[in-house]
Design a protein that fits this description.
By secondary structure, this protein is of the alpha/beta class. It is about 25% helix and about 25% strand. A five-stranded parallel β-sheet has the order 2-1-3-4-5. Helix 2 links the parallel strand 1 (about 25-30) and strand 2 (about 55).
Length: about 160
């Protein structure tokens, strides 16, 4: 059995470089709750961007809402800027099936019609069920369907991964 070793801090530095290339003059960051929100918050600071990054939750638009019910994160959407006509760069920690991204895009459009939406992720683990691809991913890994990959953040704000 092999062990997956991912250095989340090193991957964050790659993500920072990739996001820099994707940023335009009017681009705003929106982190997908919760790992993506942590990343967007740190990217906002490290890129020296004014204001704060947005945070968006997928809870209200999930296609498994009927079976899972309302998540406690349903109230985590906070967009401190107008969405209408803005260039949005969604940030997420792990991209898998694409269903969370689809739900987040639906939520985003509840706030207005952006000029464009791009996606940057720390890790793309494949296994897509929808035609969603990131404009940038710091790493691509293959995991079994039964495995989970989650971003963790310590009290100092440093990132690591939990692989189960």
């Amino acid at each position: 059995m092999s062990t997956l070793l991912l250095d989340a801090e090193a991957l964050y530095l790659d993500l920072l470089k990739g996001v820099q290339r994707l940023m335009g003059k009017d681009t705003v960051l929106v982190g997908i709750w919760s790992g993506g929100a942590w990343l967007a918050e740190r990217l906002q600071r490290d890129l020296g961007l004014a204001g704060e990054a947005g945070v968006i939750s997928s809870s209200l638009h999930r296609d498994d809402f009927g079976s899972k019910g309302m998540s406690a994160s349903a109230d985590h959407t906070k967009l401190p800027f107008e969405v209408e006509g803005r260039h949005i760069l969604l940030i997420d920690d792990v991209l898998y099936t694409g269903r969370t991204t689809r739900a987040v895009i639906n939520e985003l459009f509840d706030f207005g019609r952006p000029a464009s939406v791009q996606l940057a992720v720390l890790v793309d683990r494949g296994g897509r069920q929808l035609p969603i691809e990131p404009a940038f991913s710091a790493a691509r890994v293959a995991l079994g369907v039964e495995q989970k990959l989650r971003l963790a953040r310590d009290e100092a704000g440093r990132f690591s991964f939990d692989v189960k």
